[in-house]
UniProtKB/TrEMBL annotation:
Residues 8-257 form the ABC transporter domain. The lineage of its organism: Bacteria, Pseudomonadati, Pseudomonadota, Alphaproteobacteria, Acetobacterales. This is Amino acid/amide ABC transporter ATP-binding protein 1, HAAT family (TC 3.A.1.4.-). Keywords: ATP-binding, Nucleotide-binding, Transport. It comes from the Bacteria. SUPFAM superfamilies: P-loop containing nucleoside triphosphate hydrolases. One of its GO terms (cellular component) is plasma membrane. Coiled coil: none annotated. SMART domains: AAA. The keyword Nucleotide-binding applies. PROSITE patterns: ABC_TRANSPORTER_2.
Amino acid sequence: MADEDPILSAEGVSLRFGGVKALTDVSFSVRKGEVFSIIGPNGAGKTSMVNCVSGRYRPTEGRILFDGQDITKLGPNRRAGLGIGRTFQNLALFGHMSVLDNIMVGRHHLLKAGFLRGMMYWWGGAQREELAHRAEVEEIIDFLEIQHVRKAQAGTLPYGLRKRVELARAVALKPKLILLDEPMAGMNLEEKEDMARFILDLNQEWGMTVLMIEHDMGVVMDISHRVMVLDFGRKIAEGLPEEVMAHPQVRRAYLGVDDEAVNPAEIDA
């Protein structure tokens, strides 16, 4: 259950690439324990906003706070170390590596054995640490129901399973906040239902706060606590899913209508 304390706040975030404005004065907050979705037409600035949160982009103006700390100038690795994990719209797996090893990569921020690793092996410390990390990874593999492909090369898997492996790698960081960039893209109905179930379980059972970009409005309506809508890099609405879908500006942004009642299932960003 979400509480009122924000885990993430964006304050007046603007982003420019030369003369192109990707984001203009966007402010919002994500509460601890909620599923918060960002929607909008293609080119609305959704991924740019998530990239600002993850540290891939640095805002031209404004700031971003995570757990009360200003992280605007921190790089992606520092933010990951603070507890921000993410998946990508375009899969970023190591195709030649096994599923197990891809997920283990997600644990690297949690590894304590560094340059003294060789010495630690003498006492078995690094060995114990690796065993503990592998146990965590096996739990994630079981949770996401990918036991049958744990030793397979990631690049050989069907698309839907690769998306699940990428989610597993992000979860392996044990993030407080997980950023999901179109987790349902390219999936069939059964795969979408499975992914929605996994996201809800991560939120409700594992206690992860979720910030999600998603085009499937049925999924957004079903699993989101709150929704924000971007259009041409500006925030045009924010609130409960049913309130946002009834918003006149949202209807205009998606379908070019002003006063017609719109079924949310008809909206396809």
